[in-house]
Amino acid sequence: MVQNLTKPKLLGGRADKRFIYDLWMEEQGLPIYRGFYIEDLRTIDLKMWDLRGCKTAFVQLMGMEGVNECRVSEIAPGDTLPPFKLEVDEIVYVLQGRGLTTVWRGKDGGKRTFEWQPHSMFLVPRGYHHQLSNTRGDQPVRLLHYNYMPVMMSAVDDPNFFFANPYERPDELDGESLYAEAKVMADDTGMLGARNVWYGNFFPDMRAWDKLDPFRGRGAGGHVVFIQFAGSPMWCHMSVFPAKTYKKAHRHGPGRAIVIPGGEGYSIMWQEGHEKIVVDWHEASLFTPPGGWFHQHFNVGGAPGRYLALHPMHQFAGHSEKVEDRARDQIEYPQEDPWIREKFEGEMAKRNLTSIMPDQAYRDLNFEWDYGKE
Asked: I need a labelling partner for 102 at 20 to 30 A (CA). Which of 89, 91, 161, 245 fits?
C-alpha cells in the first residue's frame, strides 16, 4: 500500500488561484499535455510513474482545468500492474491493446475478471481494488483514464485519502452484479425529452455499439447512446453521425473529454465573438470544448463518425443540456456564419467528396432529418 504521500500546499491568500490538484499533478514529475487537443493519444510520450508502476502522462486541456482529470497509461507487453485502490470512480477507455481487469472489494471480496480490447470502456469503482494486465506479448496497452479528482482534491487536499486509504467500501454490488450485462432504462426526466439510457459498467466495443436513438434537434441525422455507470454518478454519451455531414454548433459547461472511437473529421470551437479554432480528429484523438464555447463537429470521411463524450459532474452541465434558451446555446444552420459551410464544402472537395447536407437545412429553421426505421 502507498503511504505518506506529500500533501501539496498553496502559498495562501486570496490571490492564490491555483488548484490543489494542479500542484499535486505537477509534483508527480510526469509529462502534462495542455492546449486544445491531442491528435493521437497512442503516440504521446509517457514517463514511469512509481505510484502506479507504469508509464503515464497527464492531459489537462483547456476546458478540463479544475473539473476533471485525464491521463494516459501504458502497460508493457505481457505485464501486469500492481494491485491498486482509488477512492474516486474512474472511467477507463482502451486506446489500443488487449488485456484483463480484475476487480475485488475488501480482503474477503470475490474477484471478478473480464477481458477488454480496443474501444472497450469500463468503470473502476471507488474503494475497489483492481489490477490491470496486458495479455499480448508483442504490443503495449494504452488506456485513457477519466475521473473527478480535481474537484475531489479541492475538498480533501490530502493525496493519502485517495491513494492510501485503508477504508473498505461496504457495497451491495458483488463482483458478478457489478459487471453484469448493460441494461436499457427509460429516462423522461431530462429537458431533452424521453430517451433511453444504458445502465452498466462494462461496454466491450464502443466502435461497434449500435444500440442508438435518433439525436433530434442537433442536426446531421445523427444518433446517440447515453450511458449511466452503475452505482456511480459518472455518465457519458456517444454520438454517431453520417459521412459528409456536420452537426449544429452548441455550447455547454466545461469538463467533457471527447475521444474518437472511429471516423475522420474536425471540430470548430470558439468563444462567442472570438477567433475560431479548428481541431482535426481521427481514431484516438482527444479534445475538450472549454466551458461556454460554441463547438461544431464535421465528418469529412467516407464512413460514419463517432465521438465519445465523457461527462463531468452534473453541476458543470451548463446551459445547453437544460435547453433553457436554445437560441442562445445552439446555432441553427440558417443562422450560422457562412464560412462554416464554405469550409466544410472546401474540405469535401479536397477529398473528392461532395457534401450531402440538404439545401433546405440552410433555409428552413424547422427542417428535420428523416431518421428512417427507429
From this structure: 161
Give me the CATH number covering residue 333.
2.60.120.10
pLDDT tens digit at each of 374 positions of the chain: 445 677 776 655 555 677 899 999 999 999 999 999 999 999 999 999 999 999 999 999 999 989 999 999 999 999 999 999 999 999 999 999 999 999 998 876 788 999 999 999 999 999 999 999 999 999 999 999 999 999 999 999 999 999 999 988 877 666 567 888 889 987 765 544 557 899 999 999 999 999 999 998 899 999 999 999 998 999 999 999 999 999 999 999 999 999 999 999 999 999 999 999 999 999 999 999 999 999 999 999 999 999 999 999 988 877 544 445 556 789 999 999 999 999 999 999 999 999 999 999 999 998 988 876 54
CA distance 34 to 54: 21
* 212 and 349, same domain (yes or no): yes
Whether residues 214 and 300 share a domain: the answer is yes
CA–CA separation, 161 and 155 (whole Å)? 11
DSSP state of 80: B
- DSSP β-ladder status, 223-229 and 141-147: unpaired
